[in-house]
Amino acid sequence: MTARKAIWLGARTVSRAKRLILVLWIFLTLLAALATTPVAAAISKSLGHSKWAAELIRGLDPSWIMETYRDTHGYVLAAMPVMLGLSLLAALLAHLLIAGGAISVFASQDRRYTAALFFEGCGRYFWRFFRLLLASSLLLGIVLGINAGLKALETRLWGEGMIETPIFYASRVRLALLLFLLVAAGMVADYAKIRLVVEPGRSAIRALLWSMRFASRNFGRCLRIWVVLMLAGALFYFVYDRISRAIPQTSSPGVFLLLIAQQLYIMSRLWLRLTFWASQTEMYFGLKPPAPASAPELFVWPPEPRAVLAEPALTMPQADEEAAGPA
């Protein structure tokens, strides 16, 4: 199984699951609306009955921020870190929930989306993926520890020097290594999720260790999937950025067109995330070692008892033959 074939099969599988993309878009939109409701309520209280809303379409006015801060007594800015933290936690849990259902669909025999299969996978594998998240946090801690150690080393070697060039290049190499290790950790976590869905075991530690061994043995192929799809994501963002810059945002129709472009970009990101999982699932099945052949039947002693054939019953001579006597 090559990376190109895995991506092609994964993209074809996702293209046949358009309803899955729509379901995820509705779910994430409702989740985002729930997370932004307090901020939207504060902004609506300030701009709902004011002409300032039309003025802010032409550009953000810093004086409005200060006025809103005084009206709410600093509530919005003080609650912003808590709201961001809760939003990130909700997004992380939603990611685990969606991953179980999506990988269940992609690992099924016909690779077709059904609501029953998707929602069953969401509920069945959520806690397994949550335990895997806790186990993967140790791997993430190791990566961040390596980065902190390298940063301390480069500060010790070149931090007090008069020339900035060595520490400049050393920091770029360190950041590149950090990105590489983060990609490898994410790849290991994804294949561990697939392992938990496909195989009957429930141990997150075993799945993570197996995924590390699987990814290290097939690192080139697995990494090519990440590189190709990450480049596709960068291309999607470039196209969206060009379109958003070309749309005039000084009128209500322009804002509406920008909103449509943003939702299309979000759906393209959903398609890309599902293609990641589908391609990695195809790679898993393509590189999975075959099941061992069944062992031949051994000679067993003593042999099993067999049914004894019934002997034919002896027939007695007839009475008239006895009366006739010898010939």
Number of strands: 0
Question: How do the helices and strands follow one another from N- to C-terminus?
Answer: HHHHHHHHHHH
Please tell me what the overall shape is.
Answer: globular
- Secondary structural class: mainly alpha
Which strand-content bin applies to the residues?
A: under 5%
Low-confidence stretches: 293-300, 306-311, 319-324
Q: How would you state the average pLDDT, rounded?
A: 78
Radius of gyration: 33 Å
Query: How far apart are the termini?
Result: 90 Å
Number of domains: 1
Main sheet attributes: strand count, strand direction, barrel closure: none
Q: Bin the helical content.
A: over 70%
Give the helix tally: 11
Any key phrases for this structure?
about 325 residues, mainly alpha, about 80% helix, globular
Protein described:
With 327 residues, the protein is mostly helical. The chain has one domain. The protein contains eleven helices and no strands. It has helices spanning 3-15, 18-47, 52-58, 62-71, 75-106, 115-158, 165-198, 204-217, 219-246, 252-287, 319-324. The longest helix has 44 residues, at 115-158. The termini are far apart. The model is unreliable at 293-300, 306-311 and 319-324 (pLDDT under 50).
Give a topology summary.
Layout lengths: L2 H13 L2 H30 L4 H7 L3 H10 L3 H32 L8 H44 L6 H34 L5 H14 L1 H28 L5 H36 L31 H6 L3
In short:
With 327 residues, the protein is mostly helical.
